[in-house]
Amino acid sequence: MLSRRNPQLNSHGELIHLLSIEGLPRAVVTHILDTAGTFLSVNDREVKKVPLLRGKSVFNLFFENSTRTRTTFEIAAKRLSADVINLDIARSSAAKGESLLDTIANLSAMHADMFVVRHGESGAPYLIAQHCAPHVHVVNAGDGRHAHPTQGLLDMYTIRHYKQDFTKLTVAIVGDIVHSRVARSDIHALTTLGVPEIRAVGPKTLVPGDLREMGVRVCHDMTEGIRGADVIIMLRLQHERMSGAMLPSAGEFFKNYGLTPEKLALAAPDAIVMHPGPINRGVEIHSAVADGTQSVILPQVTFGIAVRMAVMSIIAGNNA
Amino acid sequence: MLSRRNPQLNSHGELIHLLSIEGLPRAVVTHILDTAGTFLSVNDREVKKVPLLRGKSVFNLFFENSTRTRTTFEIAAKRLSADVINLDIARSSAAKGESLLDTIANLSAMHADMFVVRHGESGAPYLIAQHCAPHVHVVNAGDGRHAHPTQGLLDMYTIRHYKQDFTKLTVAIVGDIVHSRVARSDIHALTTLGVPEIRAVGPKTLVPGDLREMGVRVCHDMTEGIRGADVIIMLRLQHERMSGAMLPSAGEFFKNYGLTPEKLALAAPDAIVMHPGPINRGVEIHSAVADGTQSVILPQVTFGIAVRMAVMSIIAGNNA
Amino acid sequence: MLSRRNPQLNSHGELIHLLSIEGLPRAVVTHILDTAGTFLSVNDREVKKVPLLRGKSVFNLFFENSTRTRTTFEIAAKRLSADVINLDIARSSAAKGESLLDTIANLSAMHADMFVVRHGESGAPYLIAQHCAPHVHVVNAGDGRHAHPTQGLLDMYTIRHYKQDFTKLTVAIVGDIVHSRVARSDIHALTTLGVPEIRAVGPKTLVPGDLREMGVRVCHDMTEGIRGADVIIMLRLQHERMSGAMLPSAGEFFKNYGLTPEKLALAAPDAIVMHPGPINRGVEIHSAVADGTQSVILPQVTFGIAVRMAVMSIIAGNNA
Prior knowledge:
Chain A is of the alpha/beta class. Chain A is 38% helix and 14% strand.
């Protein structure tokens, strides 16, 4: 059954949940980006309040803590006029031994309209989408190492904003690819949008060879990886990785894979530098680059609100 | 003085606080249930946003943590268009040694319109209602072992929805009666609404004989307690009770008092099964019953939002 | 450069941030107090909801926990129809090693319109105001021992409400002056508004002699300090001070500097008693005084909401 293969789409091919960029038709991705554009106004790109989700209840279910991501969804939902309820999952019924699906069934019975879910286990948002009531929509805000689709979409919005045409680009993703749901979502999105060369750059412990199966060029040498790139996506190095066996030290990592002005000079002259944030200055990126003219890290944040507004308003408008 | 005897009603007999179901006239209870019905729309029972509490400030004062109950009140208040302020009491002035009444006086001075209070000590909401400014309304969201009136009312709404006439019913309440404010509120409400047979079912340690003084039939045998019942209200077994001297073990409890399909077959054929949640599958209720056709546990949650909207809108409309 | 000397004002002398009362022109202070008056309605001083900040996003950034102060800002912002986002800083990116300015840059990129900042380090709100985008406004909600300007302004509102004319008053500030940002803000405000006699009253360890440089009369004797005063501002004694070397004991402090009915009798017959709250009954103030007819402690709280609404609406209306 088609709906089983792609639980994000209804029988008309319309988006009802956002769980992963993998398997989304290019037209759906482009529709999200176009819609996001309408939420950025002409003057100073100020986002206005719109009544699209008036009277709807959006629940932020963050089983894994992330104040930053939760805040962006909260802002997006409030700008769509939704009522937002932040559940402190660690202190809630989940902690009293209630199962995930019982928690979801209860919240659905409260007439929740949308769940924004972050969970440490890959696939949790799929499980929720499969079991919730037909009127409920699910947005994956990051599940395990699997996917972070709104980050992938805001990255695509950013690239399109600065580069317009995806079909001529070389995009380098640098750092801890293996643990990164952002990298995985970006790779699926870039592939869907027709980017001809995607490079995964980093040490062997963090960039495994089997990424080649996804159509990605694997580069363990930063010079090779970054040369001529139009877009450089730096990933955050998790502190917990640094002290483990996977990496010698933060200083060593920065020497080899940190983005300095010198390394950036190897890329295309008009290359843009992206990062999902929060940045580790002096670990994966030099301050002169983070704050430099080629950095589009803060515009990514601005576009991220508009992209989340777009996703929420689109799925809320479609029926299962 | 009448008003001293019933601090929930003004001199016209109108509801100004909801502190306990005990002592509420049947007409007031029925008015709440009728009002709740108006908040459940015909189509798919979707609750709409209404402006009844627009510009009002509702403070959630949860001295005892309960994310689930707090969330239901937050949703109900937001659907009435109120501004909701969740106070993190554990981190607030109360922790700085300020007295309960000073905290209440300060919040009243901020022009709070309503306090939703959960407190570990029985009677705390009464104390607050006695001392707050005349324009402030208090809702008891559970105090000690004393009362949980909105749970009692949503249980009555549920029973009326499925059974219509209270005056012919046999209702069995099963489990840890002695520690349960839900049981106490249910018993008062069922009595007020004219239910002829109320049974309290459970072991002697959890169902004391003096319940008979409330007009309740005490049954220590589950078969006797459940036979022919039209409504079965299962109570949550608190984990902290299980390891104490009051109970041998969760397994033993389930064997004797857990609701299985076999035991449910002893009740009336159209009996409904209720539970205040969150359920402990395999402790007080078998999954086949919790998820079965006679279970109305999730409708209880839905009705609970409407009942809380009804309570809040009614008391906000009456003057002290 | 003038703007460097007074970063709170734009080139037209209009308020764009509220960082400190020090250096604010008297006309600006008076304008805030006048505006606050318009938010207190005639009937029972009920504050109505107004759409002045509709569609604006106000971020509460409390690096130091204060539920009470955060709540007053949250209420004020919601009554101005703003969207309020409470950031749990302790659990946010700041805890992941992100710098204060990177956090601020990110939140600005989300189109924050206003930051309400409490921080343990003096000057943090200045740093934020200097580095945030031009469309963003900053309100200092208390920084280190430096300033707490909205408390100072609400104290001025209270004094003006009861005493009308500042230019004939004797104001005594009693207690732990040296650690108090409230005292510092009050002294600047009282000076700006032309109060001829400001007294700082307390033991030598808590009231240093160099306060005289601010034009304040230092009194280590309570009888001298309070005699003939028109306004008495009692400060909260922090518990952590009591056990240190600075004070012998809470009982000793109360004996010497606690405000009792006997000591209050030394002040002007119509003197008012103020306190920023939460009060320590029996430590800095006797219950008979706190609850007495001369106490205006609860009206301070009510005025505080209106003053914060005034500050927020004024700065949001002015451009950098």
